[in-house]
Specification:
The protein has helices spanning about 20-45, 50-95. By secondary structure, the chain is an all-alpha fold.
């Protein structure tokens, strides 16, 4: 067997880069956001570990509250709608149907 020394077969592989302007703008924007977030969180990283843990726990609790709000609103609305529907149904059974003026006598 003879081996070719120094030759390497190379596959043609597309690079990740594309000429799409939207992708470029999104990449740049996400870099700016990450940099700003890191800058905003820098004072928290300088705090002692226990204080940092308290802040993280408080932030989690606040996020849980905001995440639960839509469900709580939906439950409250559901109860109010059911009460309204029950009240409307009971009012409708008490009242007599309107007289049909177009009916043939």
């Amino acid at each position: 067997m003879s081996e070719n020394q120094g030759e390497v077969r190379v596959r043609s592989v597309r690079t990740q880069r594309s000429g799409n302007l939207v992708e470029t703008v999104l990449g740049f924007g996400s870099g700016i956001v990450r940099t700003g977030l890191s800058g905003a969180l820098l004072p928290f990283t300088l705090l002692p570990g226990e204080s940092r843990q308290h802040i993280q726990n408080a932030a989690k609790e606040v996020l849980h509250v905001f995440a639960g709000l839509p469900g709580d609103f939906a439950k409250a609305a559901s109860v109010a709608i059911e009460e309204w529907a029950a009240k409307t149904d009971s009012d409708a059974t008490v009242k007599a149907a309107p007289k049909d003026e177009l009916a043939v006598k």
